[in-house]
């Protein structure tokens, strides 16, 4: 299970990522970016940051 431990920032390309990851664009910004990080990690693994545009810092825990 992947868990978002901490997150700070803003993902500017969230609309494109929601489309690519099949996420609901009507989620609150906090929920949406949490889902982008978790589902993005599930899809791309350590290459996740290569798909993100913006200023951010985060820590994921993959148990």
Task: Describe how the helices and strands are arranged.
Blueprint: E1 2-11, H1 14-21, H2 29-44, E2 54-62
Antiparallel strand pairs: 1-2
Jot down its keywords.
63 residues; alpha+beta; two-stranded antiparallel ribbon; 2 helices; globular
Structure description:
There is one protein chain. The protein is of the alpha+beta class and 63 residues long. The protein has one domain (2-62). The chain has helices at residues 14-21, 29-44; strands at 2-11, 54-62. A two-stranded antiparallel sheet has the order 1-2. Helix 1 crosses helix 2 (29-44). The chain is globular and about 30 Å long.
Mean pLDDT score: 97
The fraction of residues in strands falls at 25-35%
Q: Globular, elongated, flat, extended or rod-shaped: what is the shape?
A: globular
Please identify the structural class as seen in this structure. alpha+beta
What fraction, in percent, of the residue positions are helical? Answer: 25-40%
Strand numbers in spatial order across the main sheet: 1-2
What count of domains describes the coordinates?
A: 1
- Compressed to H and E, one letter per element, the order equals EHHE
Compute the number of strand runs: 2
Stretches where pLDDT is under 50 for at least 5 consecutive residues are none
The Rg value, from CA coordinates, equals 11 Å
**Whole-Å distance between the termini?**
5 Å
- Tally of individual helices: 2
Largest sheet: 2 strands, antiparallel
């Amino acid at each position: 299970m992947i868990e978002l431990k901490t997150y700070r920032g803003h993902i500017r390309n969230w609309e494109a990522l929601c489309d690519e990851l099949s996420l609901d664009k009507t989620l609150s910004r906090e929920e949406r970016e949490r889902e982008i990080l978790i589902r993005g990690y599930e899809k791309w693994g350590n290459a996740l940051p290569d798909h993100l545009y913006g200023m951010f810092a985060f820590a994921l825990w993959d148990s």
